[in-house]
Amino acid sequence: MSAEATNPVSAVDAAAADTGVRRRGRARLDLRRLGRAALLGATAGPAPRDRLPDAISHVAEAHRAHHPEADLSVLRRAYVLAESSHRGQFRKSGEPYITHPLAVTLILAELGAETTTLTASLLHDTVEDTEVTLDQVRREFGDEVAYLVDGVTKVEKIDYGAAAEPETFRKMLLATGDDVRVMSIKLADRLHNMRTLGVMRPEKQARIAKVTRDVLIPLAERLGVQALKTELEDLVFAILHPEEYETTRALIADATGSGSPDALADVAEQVGAVLRAADIAAEVLVRPRHFVSVHRVRLKRGELRGCDFGRLLVLVAEDADCYAVLGELHTCFTPLISEFKDFIAAPKFNLYQSLHTAIAAPDGGVAEVLIRTHRMHKVAEAGVVALGSPYGTAEPSESDAAAEDGERTDPTRPGWLARLLDWQESAPDPDTFWSSLRADLAEDREITVFRADGGTLGLPAGATCVDAAYAQHGYAAHACLGARVNGRLAPLSTVLSDGDTVQLLLAQDSGSGPSPAWLDHARTPAARIAITGWLQAHPDAAAQPAAAPRAPLSVAADRSSGAELHADVDGPPAPVRPAGCCTPVPPDTITGFRVRGGAVTAHRTGCPAVAVMHRLGRAAVPVRWGDAAHCRVTLVAESFGRPGLLADLTEAIATAGAEVVSATVEPPSEQRVRHTYTLQLADAAELPHLMRAMRAVPGVYDVARTHRL
Fold first, then answer.
1. Angle, helices 226-240/374-382, rounded to nearest 10 degrees
2. 650-661 residue pLDDT tens
3. Which label site among 312, 325, 618, 687 has the fewest CB atoms less than 10 Å from its CB?
4. Is there a catalytic annotation at residue 129?
5. pLDDT in tens, 471-481
6. Which of the following is catalytic: 30, 61, 128, 410?
């Protein structure tokens, strides 16, 4: 993409070569040799039709390694068009410009991209930088290739000015939503440009590196393309943190050049011997860490040992073999259980699957081990690139087409991408889009929460009920009043955990809106943009002071009467009364504690006050129910405010045969009203029936017994 480049080998790659660290994949392409080959091809005329031009023979070799039956004729035609259209153009380093699309295509070919992606990669700069038109690409190579080329073509800076960069990324993301191969080409394009960034001014290097760090690296992570992500991280590390980079480079040089035995290789031999003895067919490899990974380990563990400069990779044939390997390792070595993670049973949101564990090494260090199948390893390295065309060859089934809430069953369009495409529609301003995009991509973990209706929501880690409300209901979430999390009422500020069940409570009045305080709890761009838009459209509502917090629950009731309670104490009988914090009734399981004056209070065993008493060292007193069936209980009814609600509730209570001892109605807050009743029941067994009758009153969304400290 108008690549500006110089050095064919980056500082990171030079350091890796100096220290003997073996990079993954093939040897680095000699761009100057490739440039000369391109020029010779230009002067000697087109290659014969029965063979590929010499300049892309290495691309063909890498492509055939993954796709032996691939038709290479289309690559020949794409190269001829790209070379002729870029002829006479040079990069800032002096190489012919054709070396850039060739290098980008080689990166994708080594990752296993299919022929259509490689064809588009060869042509990805032709529409932007030459006289070739998109219609010409479509006529010669088809709609798919034209779509990919258009997706990675920048918008005109003359039309967008300072907004050209964010609008270009918006265009690419929209295209990626329909075909993820667009972003694959962009990532490979940025990797090659970062490899050859040395000719640029330092300030421009830093600007490009920051965009790469904030946008491209998180996208590579989310798309699972670890091979590109790790090298981009090292290149950015060298530019933005040169001192830390040099320190890390020196540590790696010392570790690999000291001539001392390789501790990790010794552990690999032991692991291999154990697996052979167990008759498990496995390939055990030593996988050197990249620079950023070594830097992170040094920050985590301090002084580095021999095993900290790499990890063991165990490759097997089947999923079941992964767990067999894990069992042998944990049996024959000392495992560090805190390091164990199962990403096979629960894959990451970027398609990554593997077992992670760690064992104690002979030198006292820690040897980290990755266990995966060969297919898992391919997807872990290449991510969505390894999945090929998102369209496939078979017709999609009805089940494939029916995806709920934007979560397409197509793995090449994961839920996070669908959510990103949704909220970007509400961010027409380029600055809002750009800042929201960076904030969204900064969330590197995802959780799944379950909806009350059985569906699921994918949210970033740290998301709250506010985020869940807008993810499920969109703009209708403006009327959200609260939520139930795992069956219990919870404020909208509640931070959700993976696996939580969430039920959002919406007001019946659709004209209600969010509070400005919601912005303090919103983590997702969709929620923040929607809340901000509503507040800007309703400045009067936004300026209103927040409702005062409701006073602590106060229940005026005589607790001396009710069901009979007895305490098993030495000496004279002690008076026993139910605790006001949890109001136990028969047949609740209860426990007692002495209070001032020698009396005993009885609590439900699940009451938080019981745990507090135990922490304070207070001795429990055995208590039990007597024969009397009558009881007194305090209930709290949460409801939406409406006329006649109090009358309907008291009628329901009377119909159920309960006597109202006292009642309190708190002032409405955000259209919610809390009613507190202390009730006398002739028979404690009628309590569940009474609570169901109160919940059946229109507008009441929760009835619970008091449970407070």
1. 40
2. 888 888 888 888
3. 618
4. yes
5. 888 888 888 87
6. 128
